Amino acid sequence: MNEFVTLSKSSPQFESYLLGTFSKEKRALPVQTLNVNSASETVTFKIVPVSSLEFPPRLVRILQTIKIRSFLFILVPLFLLLTKNIADQTLRDPISTVIATVGLIFAFISVNLRNDYTDHIRGVDRILERSGSRAIQNGWTTAAHIKSLSTVFLLLAFACSVPVMVTYTDVAYLVVAAASIGLWAQFQKRVSFKYQIGGEICLFLLFGPLLTVSYQLSMGAPYDIESLWIGVVWGWAVLFVVHLRNFINILPSSQAGFRNTVNWLGFDRSRRLIAIWWFVYLVINLFYHAVYAGKYWGVYVSVALVLLSFSFIAKLKALSSPVGGDVRQVFKYGFTLFLFTIGLWVFECLWYLFLTR
User: Fold this and answer.
1) Which residues contact 139 (CB under 8 A, 6 or more apart)?
2) What is the pLDDT of residues 271-329, one digit of tens each?
3) 3-class SS at 26?
4) pLDDT tens digits, 144-189
5) Count of other CB atoms within 10 angstroms of residue 65
6) Could you tell me which residues are beta bridge partners of residue 26?
7) Other beta carbons less than 10 A from residue 45's beta carbon
8) What is the rounded distance in angstroms from the CA atom of residue 170 to the CA atom of residue 296?
9) Cα gap 161→61, rounded to integer Å
10) Per the CB 3.0–4.6 Å rule, which of 90, 154, 266, 314 could disulfide with 221?
11) What angle do CA 37, 181, 211 make, to 5 degrees?
12) In the sheet that 42-49 helps form, which strands lie side by side, from edge to edge?
């Protein structure tokens, strides 16, 4: 027979059950959370022996825990910068490039793991059933273990960054800026930019200009405006996906008291935000290609995206409620549009790389 335990936030055992440190032989699976993110929060845990849990293959667990699908957000911009500098013959330090690439991947893994930990503790992943990797909620591991792993990967990322920063001092300033934003976001449970109106700008900086410019310099390549523009275009595209994801969770997030720009705007105005955000992306994407790539690529890609955008905007406009399958269909269509966009961009980079060879 399953055992259930309900604890309030004021209970001395509350934190140990959330962290999973109350027992080595058992897991506390959160099945219901009430009054989340408040002094009166209560959580009902299902206590199960570790031996009774069904675990997927180890590789599957590892890949899902580090959220391998999200690696798209870090690997694509690195690829764009790498092919750009190879084509321009400005990649002057391959060793530093490899070290920087490994370090950025370690840092991204650390951020993913830390997000899982903080969102579990705060209650985001306990309220939103599709949020996070679900590794903690499924009992595959504990929040305490995830936190420790995050620290390990953060130290590995720092170790990789040291030789690059020593070699290229300009990179150090950008790393310090990114680390400052990341530390503030990850270690301040109640003031994280994820739960602040307008805080998405921090994600824009981390996944956009700070990432692309620092990676450009770590290759031994000179600073150029194009690397900054790649960061602007990419960061804007990433925030489009973030706004879409927040949009499909607007109702449960609002009920739980989680705040972000989409929740603050409400259902109707957030639809307009997403539509405007996407059309601004089309404009800056066209500008980037017209100036730094080829005008034919810019025109053809933009025409294709505009034609596909009409259907997306129509689906977005037709939504009448923040609940139901139609909302998730809009997210899937929008995310597919995002994938199609970056797919064309990657193909374009490969095309130019082929021509230079």
Assistant:
1) 27, 29, 48, 50, 53
2) 999 999 999 999 998 888 888 876 677 777 778 888 888 888 888 888 877 777 788 88
3) strand
4) 999 999 999 999 999 999 999 998 888 888 888 877 776 666 555 4
5) 23
6) 49
7) 22
8) 35
9) 28
10) 90
11) 125
12) 3-8, 42-49, 26-34
* Amino acid sitting at position 270: S
325: number of Cβ within 10 Å: 7
CA distance 216 to 230: 11
Nearest to 131 by CA among 242, 13, 277: 242
How far CA 44 is from CA of 2, 187, 223, 353, in Å, comes to 12, 26, 54, 56
Of the chain, the end-to-end C-alpha distance in Å amounts to 66
Encoded tokens for 316: 């977005």
3-state secondary structure of 1: coil
Backbone angles phi, psi at 88, to 5 degrees: -85, -5
Rounded Cα–Cα distance for residues 297 and 344 (Å)? 9
Rounded Cα distance, 195 and 116, in Å: 15
pLDDT tens-place string over residues 4-51: 888 888 888 988 989 988 888 888 888 888 877 777 888 888 888 888
Q: Residue written as tokens 């405007």?
A: 276
Only one residue has tokens 């400052």, namely 180
